[in-house]
Amino acid sequence: MLSGLMKFLRACFRPSSDRYVHTSSEAGGRQDGLLWYKDSGQHINGEFSMAVVQANNLLEDQSQLESGCLSSHESGPYGTFVGVYDGHGGPETSRYINDHLFQHLKRFTSEQQGMSVDVILKAYQATEEGFLSLVTKQWPMKPQIAAVGSCCLVGVICGGTIYVANLGDSRAVLGRAVKATGEVLAIQLSAEHNVCIESVRQEMKSLHPDDSQIVVLKHNVWRVKGLIQISKSIGDVYLKKAEFNREPLYKKIPPS
Fold first, then answer.
1. Which of 34, 109, 206, 223 has the most CB atoms around it within 10 Å of its CB?
2. Distance of CA 43 to the CA centre of its chain
3. What is the number of other CB atoms lying within 10 angstroms of the CB of residue 14?
4. Beta bridge mates, 180
5. Top-level CATH class of 2-192+232-252?
């Protein structure tokens, strides 16, 4: 079973400059229905690969792998960056993250001369603020963009340290081989922000004590305002800014 799973997930990376799923013979990729994959080869911290299985014909998700591109003034190029952006409501947010988050991370790493938790936080914040600006500009012509969002899971490996940052309910898992037995242990590295989890529901209620509808059980599923399950994300501006949660958006939000 494990062997079959490893074959299924083997070697799947598309360069960040080509953010769409459609593969070509020139890119060396393969596509089987809504599954695509491509060998990524060697990277500065070893071999890395990714797989993408589309849930539907419109790809709302993005994934990104960058290596040797995070630098400080003193040490030169180092580090490996992996990003998984699980979009919902449309592809705009995940594509925006794919185009901007890593660039922000490089800039802050250079300014602070090294990787740190603060650098990652600043990159996330700059990406969120940038997408908010995009929504503000496009709102009059395209109000639906206010209801588009994305989970954002990032792993950065540098200097012998793994940094993991997460918004939403994607999960980072580390596989550790046990030499004595040959088994592989799965170690969870990130926590999900999904209101199906009791502690997350309690957090939402404590943050919004005056809103009895902040978390609603709908069709046996807990949802924020009865709409989405995740409590943190990039985008979803209509749930963060009241000025975007009004007509004409109401008529355009698809039923949950």
1. 109
2. 21
3. 23
4. none
5. alpha beta
Cα–Cα distance, 44 to 29 (Å, whole number): 22
CA atoms of 163 and 122, how far apart (whole Å): 14
Residues ≥6 apart with Cβ < 8 Å to 112? 72, 118, 119
The closest of 222, 239, 129, 244 to 169, measured between CA atoms, is 222
Q: Which residues contact 59 (CB under 8 A, 6 or more apart)?
A: 20, 21, 52, 91
Identity of the residue numbered 101: L
Residue 49 contacts residue 9 (beta carbons within 8 Å): yes
CA-based radius of gyration for the chain: 19
Q: Where are the beta strands (DSSP E) in the chain?
A: 30-32, 35-37, 42-43, 46-47, 51-53, 62-72, 76-85, 87-88, 149-150, 152-158, 161-167, 173-177, 184-188, 215-218, 221-224, 234-235
Q: How far apart are CA 148 and CA 212, in angstroms?
A: 24
Residues in CB range of 56: below 8 A, 6 or more apart: 34
Domain boundaries, the chain: 2-192+232-252, 194-231
187-237 per-position pLDDT tens digit = 999 999 999 999 999 999 999 999 999 999 999 999 999 999 999 999 999
Rounded CA separation 97/99 (Å): 5
**249: number of Cβ within 10 Å:** 17
- 8-state DSSP, 71: E
The terminus-to-terminus CA distance of the chain in angstroms comes to: 35
> What tokens appear for 119 in the block?
């650098």
How many other C-beta atoms are found inside a 10 Å radius of the C-beta of residue 168? 27
